Amino acid sequence: MDEHFVQGVVGGVLNRHKNRTLDKKKIAVLSVEIAANIERATQFTNVKDMQKAIDNPLTIEMWKGYDGVEKSYDKEYLDYWTCDICNEHTHEVDYDYLGNGTNHLGCELQMENSLSKEREIENEVK
């Protein structure tokens, strides 16, 4: 592996992330992406395939410990991460989309809208 090859891979990754502010987390992500792209690119001898490998963004397969097998969760864990409104599991939901506790934010908003409509109807009947 020569110096120009490594510079090309690193330059490709950095170019894809230009105009973004770098912090410690972003630098860590970039280092993983660069290492994964160098490893993947060395497997190719065809220049077109090598460029495809360099241009691919981060994928889950790049992270240590990922084996491609979906993890099974025990019942107690899944029972905890369950929406009280729809009874579906929320263990894979981003925190931005969780409402109170482990409820889906969407479920809570729908319930709130339904309750406000019921109150409007009650007020009209009175």
What do you see in this structure?
Helices cover 54% and strands 0% of the residues. The chain is mainly alpha-helical. It folds into two domains: 3-62, no CATH class; 75-125. The model has no long low-confidence stretch (mean pLDDT 77).
Structural class: mainly alpha
Total strands: 0
From the N-terminal CA to the C-terminal CA, the straight-line distance is 81 Å
Q: Characterize the biggest β-sheet.
A: none
**What's the helix-strand series?**
HHHHH
- Rounded mean pLDDT is 77
Please state the oligomeric state of the protein chains shown.
single chain
Percent strand: under 5%
What's the total helix number?
5
State the shape. elongated
- Secondary structure: helix percent: 40-55%
Question: What's the gyration radius in Å?
Answer: 24 Å
- Low-confidence segments, given as residue ranges, are none
Count of all domains: 2
In short:
This protein is an all-alpha fold and 126 residues long. The chain has helices spanning 3-16, 24-41, 47-55, 75-80, 105-125.
Which terms would index this structure?
mainly alpha, 2 domains, 126 residues, single chain
Chain-wise SSE layout:
Elements: H1 3-16, H2 24-41, H3 47-55, H4 75-80, H5 105-125
Helix pairs in contact: 1-2, 2-3
